[in-house]
Amino acid sequence: MNENKVKNEKRKRKIEEGIAIFVFLLPGLLLFVGILIAPIAVSVYRSMYDWNGFSEGTFIGFSNYIELFTNGSIKFVNSLKNSLILAFFSVFVQLPLALGLALLLGRREGRKERAFLSIFFMPVLISTVVIGQLWLKIYNPDYGLLNRFLDAVNLGNLKHVWVGDVKTALGSIIVPTVWQYVGYHMLLMYAGVKGVDIDLREAAMLDGATKWQVDKYVVIPIIKPILRVSVIFAVTGSLKTYDLVRILTEGGPFQSTEVPSTLLENMLFLRNRYGMGSTISVMLILLCFAFALLITAAFREKDE
């Protein structure tokens, strides 16, 4: 009898603990479902309709998805290509710069280290709208700093309408994007570099390793999980990019700098194709998720 009573009490205690855990998790779970899961579900549902945002809409199945890739006038493939070009420069230019800065600052101590951290991180703290307006002034063909600099160094023949030319418009977006977020990734990597055990560094130095060799063979392998996160953030951030493109070029000239997010805005508010806009948003979610899985798998293979 006593054993049964003890078992019943334990079972009752576990049930009470489970209920308490559920009650504490419920607010966060409701927020997660309401803010993330429900909008995605609604977008998937609306992507199956030919809907203008006002009328009831007509169910058309996967026709929007087929049209997205086959209708050349929508230019989704072109917008995706622009995002992938931006992702390429983010991964192979922005992240190496951030890693180099993190490794250099990780060797320093004191006020200079904190000062440089603040300087490099400052662009991240500035509103992207302000960043966009700043670079518009730099690119201005009449009084912009870039064209004036070219004049000053006797390279006036290279002066350009930077954001108004199909050949240079996308590059004009890539430069401020790389510049703005170098500090963000640098700070992530810097935290990892500073977390490396000093004894490992000293042991490698005693074995005759140079500072570069210590970074290459000791520090970088240890901070690989942080590098993986930075690569995922850089790629998915490039796929979702919107604000700088909207401010600098508005997707022009001739849709040459269109990205999926600006195309989504175009479909929703200019063409009143809410079904197609929902389709683009679903594709963005799937692409971000797919790239995150691919990058994680690639890093796992390297570790093995």
TrEMBL record:
The chain crosses the membrane at residues 21-45, 84-104, 116-136, 274-299. GO terms for cellular component: plasma membrane. Keywords: Cell membrane, Membrane, Transmembrane, Transmembrane helix, Transport. It comes from the Bacteria. Residues 80-295 form the ABC transmembrane type-1 domain. It is found in: Cell membrane. Signal peptide: none annotated. Its main location: membrane. GO terms for biological process: transmembrane transport. InterPro entries: MetI-like (IPR000515), MetI-like_sf (IPR035906), UgpAE/MalFG_permease (IPR050809). It is a multi-pass membrane protein. Belongs to the binding-protein-dependent transport system permease family. This is Sugar ABC transporter permease protein. The lineage of its organism: Bacteria, Bacillati, Bacillota, Clostridia, Lachnospirales.
